[in-house]
Amino acid sequence: MQLRYAFRLYPDAGQRIALAKAFGCARVVFNDCVRAREDARKAGRPFPKAGELSKTLITQAKHTAERGWLGEVSAVVLQQSLRDAEAAYKNFFASLKGTRQGPKLGATRFKSREDARQSIRFTANARWNITDSGRLDLPKIGAVKVKWSRALPAAPTSVTVVKDSAGRFFASFVIDTDPAADASRMPATDQSIGIDLGLTHFAVLSTGEKIDSPRFLRRAEKKLKKAQKELSRKQKGSKNREKARLKLARAHAQVTDARREFHHQLSTRLISENQGIAVESLSVAGLVRTRLAKSVHDAGWSRFVAMLEYKAQRYGRTLVKTGRFEPTSQVCSTCGVKDGPKPLAVREWTCAACGAVHDRDHNAALNVQQAAGLAASACGAPVRPEPVLAQREETGSHGFPTGSRAA
Known about the structure:
5-stranded mixed β-sheet, 7-stranded antiparallel β-sheet, single chain, alpha+beta, 10 helices
């Protein structure tokens, strides 16, 4: 499988200017492509082909007075910008037809120099390389200093240079992983686990372990509020406003980076210790429309589950998502009796059938594990409780909640 490895770049003053030119040229070519397609659509003509756009928007445009500066950057950067525009249109039409998974995509829009993220991509034919001293040598930009936090496991096939809203530069390398090497890093194990995600605790495991929620955004709210006030008081268009904007962006970037690092460490640990992992499918899109929106965003459940997915695929683990309407908080994990929904304030409860005392989240994690079919005894037989007759007061359907649990 293909993965991305990102490393921080530290370009000097001249290289920053060269990168700014490359970002601008790539953005102009992308916008010219969108404009050419929109003009053809309004005139009722067929969309121009990629080869025609490359000839008119890059090759011929370099010899004009209006676009002569396109020759100051690598041609590969411009070609990749055209491919990005083609991919954007392809994804949009696939979304309209319903052949593309995920949320519906809007029509392709023009890029702005004020966008929070600027990027350019170099493929292998751009003749970029990593020097013996560990610098990233890019065509028409130079050898840029790189902070190598780890070694690349294989030779990269392409590199994308990104500038984020905080003014930081990154090099993102595409790597084809070796399945044999990945298997040796994570030997097989007979352990399995269920995970109940929540807000009181970020995760409660079926083993009984509770992992506290770091609440990175909540802890940084005072600092972010102060930075936002300073930004709002600066005059628009002034240098001081740009400084205040960067200060606020860096504060938000620190929160994002800390949350991502927490997700990476926890997901890697769970993948390395367990052969099978069960997690509940949460309706994050529904929960962010409630009063818990800020806390749900702060937890970052979707990003964490996505990390578990690709790491499980990479290392040969099994990740099972249970249904979001599975009544994990209503069923006794000991005897299997369902006694109905409970308010979020109820953190412990006693089963009326067998008398077992349950911690709400731990019981839910056990039910998630059993619902996924991952729980097994030492002899390999399933340990999910056998069906039992409903008690008289439990006869009938309690119904399922309209959304997933928040805790």
